[in-house]
Amino acid sequence: MPGHRIDFPLYRTPGSPVMRNEVCQLLRDALVSLVDEGVLPDAPDTEVRVERSRGREHGDFASNLAMVLAKRAGLKPRELAEKICAALPASGLLSRAEVAGPGFINLFLSPASYHVLPGEIRSRGAAYGTSDAGAGRKVMVEFVSANPTGPLHVGHGRGAAYGDALARVLRAAGYDALSEYYINDAGRQMDILALSVWLRYLELCGETLPFPRSAYQGDYIFDIAATLHREHAAQYQADAEALFAELPEEDNPMLDTLISRARAVLGDDGFGRIHGLARDTLVEDIRLDLERFGVSYQTWYSEQSLIDSGAVGRAIEALKETGFVYEHDRAWWFRSSDFGDEKDRVVLRANGNHTYFATDIAYHRDKILRGFAQVINIWGADHHGYIQRVKASMSALGLNQDDLSVLLVQFAVLYRGGEKVSMSTRSGEFVTLRELREEVGRDAARFFYALRKPDQHMDFDLDLAKSQSSDNPVYYVQYAHARICSVFRQLAEKDIDADLAAADHSLLTEPREADLLQKLSRYPEVVESAARAYEPHQVAYYLRELANDFHTYYNAHPFLAAQAELRLARLSLIDATRQVIANALDLLGVTAPERM
RNA sequence: GCGCCCGUAGCUCAACCGGAUAGAGCAACGGCCUUCUAAGCCGUAGGUUACAGGUUCGAGUCCUGUCGGGCGCGCCA
């Protein structure tokens, strides 16, 4: 269908941070003019939406605005589209607008908009792609937060890769994002951990004992026990025979009995020191593991500190004051079913201890009180049942439950040699994040995770991720970066003078150059969109497209052999490409190697 | 049983809060290295978007139901 075409005068060349937003503004201006002219009845509250066109023939941007507003204007979509086009203010950004299909408005960027791009990318450098879309809003991203009772496994890896990339993307899009790890260092699991260490320590002291099968079995328990033995010799030794005398046979009562006997023998002080040693060792181990995975946190927030500071007690008191808490069977229940939860939940148990839920209430209350406009929790999919009750507690406390977003990360099913790898923390039969990193490499692992939407079930093929072949998508992107660096090394060797700032980009007339420029111009929009949707995988897919455009260009046109002026323009273009690849890879926590 | 997430090419996944002809990568087949890194490029083939209805100018996307998969439903953490 032939489109109606309108040409604009070209009078300036703005360097726009996010082009799509600029285009939206032009359409908004057009709507205002149409209201003034009486074509539209009132100031339309319809959100102006513009998307990147799919195909080149549809221009750079497309809007369905006319189709949305046609009914209100009493016009056919195509007629309204033409009026909108005619009302567009003059701008150097666009060169023309067309009406096409059932009433789409296709917008074409001006050549000048493209020609300023490589220079803009070069001058902004690592900052190209960042914007102030988030307007400095304070957001918290809390992720991983695994119990410090053992090493992280590959399931945590997915949450780590996702959470860290999300935090980076949010920062790039102008949010004030803080990464936090919530250390679950209170409760029974930690007691079992301390007990496990102590029992292994007793063995080192020469005691013989039947190590309980439901205690922690991992090698790291021996390591911590060895440290304890090295630093304190037999200071915490006790008679194992007495310790294991007349124990309940069932796993849980047995462990609980052992824990209370350990406390009795060692005193709260002694037990607490072993507990603290185990905790600190494992938290430090996790911190190092994540750091080597390219993941770092601003804050490590201790669950125990919430209890010690009285925050949990205060939160329960605050909840009681709302009247949504009642006593039943000597326990205190929160009326969460009043807020959409399936049933009411216990916050204070009959034995006087608070539940895990109680600390969660205190923790989320604390997050909001710390002044975050948006709190993002990244949880494993097995925790989805807790979302409603936590949100319920926020509502009950007078907080806005929409300030909390819980994003669920589905489990990755591991495949090795074409077969499922079954995983269970207790049996010790699980692949740790450390193993994955050492076998696969940090970059491949992170990119592999980044390629998947978090709420999508994921098959993680270990053999593929481990492979150093081209099957591995991360190399495809990194290779593009390395190739560009290589070109510039050749340039230096051949002693060719290249003042990129003097490049004349109007010489870039090849279709593949236009494709590459267009892709580069999209990058800030990709970052903004990934941040808004909490979907860093958009960056990974963008990278693959960008690398593809570059490789295609590389194969089709020589850079160094070209005539001097053209060579300069092309070098400027691929230098800009290199910068954008590096920027985007950084958002995913992946390095951009200069050679491969 | 109830609730949440999902179902797209042989496989693994995209598809910009409903848009134009549903796209990549593997795997398959056929081409491209005396020239800047072949970890690359180009081409061919591959689809009733699980199924059935509904909403509207328009549905992979929203609603209802069915089937299939994952997870969750403790005074555990």
What this model shows, in words?
This protein is of the alpha/beta class and 596 residues long. The protein folds into 4 domains: 4-115, 2-Layer Sandwich (Gyrase A, domain 2), CATH 3.30.1360.70; 188-292, no CATH class; 309-409, no CATH class; 471-587, Isoleucyl-tRNA Synthetase, Domain 1 (Orthogonal Bundle). The protein is built from 21 helices and 16 strands. Strands 1-4-5-3-2 form a 5-stranded antiparallel β-sheet. A 5-stranded parallel β-sheet has the order 8-7-6-12-13. The chain has a 3-stranded antiparallel β-sheet with strand order 9-10-11. The protein starts with a strand and ends in a 9-residue tail after the last helix. The protein binds one RNA strand of 77 nucleotides through α2, α7, β10, β11 and β16.
